[in-house]
Specification:
590 residues; alpha+beta; Taq DNA Polymerase, Chain T, domain 4; 4 domains; five-stranded mixed beta sheet; four-stranded antiparallel beta sheet; 13 strands; DNA-binding
Length: 590
DNA sequence: GCGGGGGGCGCC
DNA sequence: AAAGGGCGCCCCCCGC
């Protein structure tokens, strides 16, 4: 069953299509192709349409039918249902799906809401999206979701039937986009089932993100203030540097013998030049190599200045609301399918600040982390038997070291990262030779992706998310014939090679993570509805759980990881282990 | 005065 | 010893 939902006058308007389809598999993350397809077709012929505007009925629909809710953009619509106290099991996010489908056609950044989808289907002029789906540039303050803004309400006042029509169009295009000579030639061929799974997982992620953005990570402002007080002293009044920073700035100038602004890289580099140190950048790792009295206070200054500007009192004022971190999570906002956040830097919480993330009374934080995910994903994507065999080890790098690097874990890790990120010089390049001998399939996989990228081609994740084609500027730079441009052309080409090399891994890891969290969310909804997912960062979930359920949630997180492996890499024996821990304070998880 | 690019650094 | 993928966010700095 399908239910399409839009907003009208700040209220919810929903259309339920006839109950023609036996329920069950339709919305599962493992949605099987024929069933989902049958649903779409049935909708086309369905005459019986029920329309409601009352929350009680919506809740009952969810309860009785567990339908797939069709949203123009879940990030806009689902909060309206949540506000009515309705959590849904599954949805289809038209905008996120459209971005995936357009991406497979090499079209990035085009409008992707229902109106645009239908216009394209009918060869009509495509209207611009009313608001950017990534939320656009947001002011550095907490604001209510734009849901009830007049502009948004007006723009989304669509007949819900149009959403169904857009959904049908997308499902047809899924079948066309899978397989076929074009996709094969482009190197982005996957099965229709894989694409459907990607869409289900992406849509499920949107539900996770909406719930997560609503109930963020518990954050103890007093603990945070104590951390700031210990490191920086008292909060300065308006615009001034904290006393500790001012003191360090003095020390730095004294060490140079002339005034230097430690916040200015230009100023700093010049100061070091004048002191006889010919450095290109003022990055910390460069400075650490220099024997000069300004270095120690400068490194200390950089450290504290970052704490002050990125996670200081202003951050606390802006992003911690009612004891929760109010970051907005945006699924699929990175081309690789990774999430982004708007505000609060929710994906970059410094480990030193995690002492302030403390479960509410009677609760714990279940921190579930997919350890060493990317090398395991490489094993699965490349089907490299030797690497897959090693993935059973809890410490993959240690196993790698024992297998071919004479027990040197540091070497093994360096080689693996070099393979995944494309390091071509220094020690890592030498270690790659070992990789090539021991794990030929894995190395061939990333190198073929790199060659494709260098040649201007595209690559895709295991479930079919395609990377962007090169820009016009890239083509010009690489195609330029002049001898003076040749080295630049080579460099630009290799930059793209590194991007596509890594894309295959990073995007496939994002596929896995989306399947994992979507599976886990469904399990929690059934078994521990009080559990709240409160943070997600690439391969790690934090779940706020009433203490008695801690053990159960840990087990569900582990099971969901295996399910995700089976869904995303059917038949693979690669291990993608998750080892959850239940802690009161986030800092205790590591 | 404002916006955008880049430097630098936090996370994965 | 030397520096590779993806971000967000702060600041500086420059050009309009």
């Amino acid at each position: 069953m399908l239910v399409a939902v839009t907003i009208r006058n700040g209220g919810v308007r929903a259309v339920r299509m006839a109950d023609v389809v036996a329920d069950g598999a339709v919305g599962d993350v493992s949605a099987d192709a024929p069933v989902a397809h049958a649903a779409a077709e049935a909708v086309g012929g369905a005459a019986a349409v029920t329309e409601v505007t009352g929350p009680a009925e919506l809740a009952e629909w969810e309860q009785s039918y567990a339908p797939r809710w069709i949203f123009d953009l879940a990030a806009e619509m689902y909060p309206a249902l949540l506000a009515l106290g309705i959590r849904v099991r599954r949805c289809h996010d038209l905008a996120l799906t459209e971005r995936i489908l357009l991406g497979r056609e090499g079209r990035f950044g085009e409008p992707c809401r229902a109106a645009a989808i239908l216009a394209r289907a009918h060869g009509e002029p495509v209207p611009a999206d009313p608001v950017p789906i990534d939320g656009g540039a947001r002011p550095h303050v907490v604001e209510q979701p734009g849901l009830f803004d007049d502009a948004v309400a007006e723009a989304t006042e669509t007949d819900p039937r149009l959403l169904i029509a857009a959904y049908r169009d997308q499902m047809r295009r899924v079948d066309r986009s899978a397989g076929g000579p074009e996709a094969t030639a482009a190197g982005i061929d996957v099965s229709a089932g894989a694409l459907r799974l990607l869409i289900a997982a992406e849509s499920g992620s949107a539900l996770v993100a909406a719930e997560m953005s609503r109930r963020g990570l518990p954050w103890d402002a007093d603990v945070h203030r104590q951390i700031l007080a210990d490191a920086l002293g008292t909060r300065p009044t308006d615009g001034a540097r904290p006393a500790t920073l001012a003191r360090l700035a003095e020390e730095i100038s004294t060490a140079f013998g002339f005034p230097v602004n430690p916040d200015s890289p230009v100023d700093l580099r010049e100061a070091f030049h004048r002191s006889g140190f010919d450095i290109e950048t003022t990055r910390a790792w460069v400075l650490r190599e220099i024997d000069h009295p300004a270095v120690a206070p400068l490194l200390r200054y950089k450290d504290l200045a970052r704490l002050f500007t990125a996670n200081g009192w202003n951050w606390l004022d802006d992003w911690v609301v009612d004891g929760r971190l109010a970051a907005q999570f945006l699924p699929g906002a990175v081309v690789s399918g990774r999430w982004a956040t708007r505000g609060g830097g929710g994906l970059q919480l410094p480990t030193s600040m995690r002492r302030a993330a403390i479960a509410e009374p009677g609760h714990v934080l279940v921190v579930a982390d997919a350890a060493q995910l990317e090398p395991r994903i490489l094993a699965a994507v490349s089907k490299d038997p030797a690497l897959t065999a090693l993935s059973g080890d809890a410490d993959l790098y240690a196993a790698l070291a024992a297998d071919g690097f004479g027990g040197d874990r540091r070497h093994a890790k360096l080689a693996m990262l070099g393979a995944m990120y494309g390091q071509t010089s220094g020690e890592a390049a030498r270690l790659m030779a070992t990789m090539r001998v021991r794990y030929p399939a894995a190395v061939a996989c990333v190198e073929s992706a790199a060659r494709r990228g260098e040649a201007g081609g595209v690559v895709a994740s295991v479930l079919g998310r395609a990377c962007p084609p090169p820009s016009e500027g890239w083509r010009r730079a690489v195609g330029a014939g002049g001898a003076s441009d040749e080295s630049r052309a080579r460099r630009v080409a290799r930059d793209r090679g590194r991007f596509t090399r890594n894309f295959v891994i990073q995007a496939s890891a994002a596929d896995w993570a989306a399947a994992w969290m979507t599976t886990l969310r469904l399990a929690l909804l059934d078994e521990v509805p009080a559990a709240e997912m409160v943070l997600f960062q690439h391969d790690e979930l934090v779940i706020h759980v009433p203490e008695p359920y801690a053990e159960q949630v840990c087990e569900l997180a582990v099971t969901a990881a295996t399910t995700a492996r089976d869904l995303v890499f059917p038949g693979s024996s690669v291990h993608t282990p998750v080892r959850p821990v239940a802690v009161r304070c986030y800092a205790d998880a590591k």
